[in-house]
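ok so I'm stuck.
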Amino acid sequence: GPYVPSSWVMSSLWQSAKLSKDGEGLRRAVEVIAPDGGRRLAIRYKGSRALDEMWHDERFRLVQSIPQGRVRVTRTRPRFLPWEIEVLVLLDEQLLDRKVFDEVTYRAGRNIGIGEKVDGTRTRYSVEIVPR
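replied:
not stuck anymore, here's the structure
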């Protein structure tokens, strides 16, 4: 099924941490872990996870004509509405205060985002932190 790279999450957090001069602290203190132990996070959404079924279902694709130089190109991107991902983050609180981490995380969702939308911006997200 569809996945996003776990590096998207770390990149978003790092971009946010740099805004408050906590970038290097975050890099040392945080590890983003994919549930399967790899480097990808499963996208949760309603609908089939079979690629052939998704290919034939127009709900899962966004087709747009975008300018590229002096010509327009038709670009097709995957789309999942609504969708979510679950991320496990290990935080070393001796290297980065928990309160700072929470602020960085919420700011990352509000102001940085992940991925890339057609217009070049990133998808903003909301965060729910569940301590373990």
